[in-house]
Amino acid sequence: MLTNIDLNKMNRLMEENREAKQIISQLLENHHTTVSMIAHEIRNPLTLVSSSLQIIEAQHPEVKEFYNWNQTMEDVHFMCSLLNELSTFNNSSTLHYSVFSIEKLIKNVAVSFAISLDSENSAIRFSSKIASGMGDYTGDKIKLERVLLNLLKNAREAVNSDGIISLSANRNNDNIVIQCTDNGCGISAEIINKIFDPFVTYKENGTGLGLSSSKRIVEAHGGSISAESSDDKGTVFTVTLPI
Ligand SMILES: Nc1ncnc2c1ncn2[C@@H]1O[C@H](COP(=O)(O)OP(=O)(O)O)[C@@H](O)[C@H]1O
Ligand SMILES: [Mg+2]
User: Fold this and answer.
1) Do residues 181 and 74 both lie within one domain?
2) Residue ranges around ligand 1 (CB below 6 Å)
3) Are residues 163 and 218 in the same domain?
4) Segments in 91-185 forming alpha helices (H)
5) Which domain holds residue 21?
6) Which residue owns the Cα nearest ligand 1 atom 19?
7) What is the distance in A from the centroid of ligand 1 to the CA of 150?
8) Where are the beta strands (DSSP E) in 123-223?
9) Nearest to 242 by CA among 222, 217, 218
10) Angle at 211 between CA 206 and CA 215, to 5 degrees
11) Mean pLDDT across the stretch 29-41?
12) Both 105 and 79 in a single domain?
């Protein structure tokens, strides 16, 4: 899988050399198709395995007592979410544009995140401050929602059970600036430059695809994403989207 540094080098080569541009574009297209096909071919049998395991568990609840049953269920669940995230990552630069209210989109994300915390009776305190009158935005609504949900999910995974998370959004001249702040474990200086690379995860059950997909999606909108953090002091992710 290409890292962001590789992608930058590749973009430079493509700008410098016409022939390289043609060949690299073709290779990228093939690579994209191959990843899609592999994900698709694995997802079909995996969905069948997952359904069969659920049926077995419903009809024979005693299997839960078997050694490794729960681990197997968790592994299958992990593989399903890995495939979903891989597809999201693979498609993150292909945008389906529409015109929508960015204020509404961010508010909806904030509400669904608050509901998910409520439904788990979580003691995490979440607040949002979303400016009104940010106007219409042209972009890929579903993918931008995914970016914000990725940031909130990471924030939730970084904080303790009584942590604090906030989401803010403002219009600054010709940019929409969205910030997701948490008072969680923070990100050390050694790894902060790697977290946007694909498959980089420091979590036991992480995929390492959330931030790399988010970066690709934001950059496909002409924007940028960055993280500021220090150990134990929490983290702020800033997404800037040009209008
Ligand atoms: N809010 C945050 N606080 C602390 N660390 C974070 C935060 N967000 C991301 N990270 C770090 O960045 C890594 C990559 O994140 P991500 O791409 O979403 O993959 P994953 O969540 O599957 O590990 C995480 O494993 C974690 O170490
Ligand atoms: Mg994540």
Assistant:
1) no
2) 150, 154-155, 158, 182, 184-187, 195, 200-203, 206-212, 235
3) yes
4) 102-119, 141-158
5) 4-90
6) 208
7) 9
8) 125-130, 136-139, 164-172, 175-182
9) 222
10) 160
11) 91
12) no
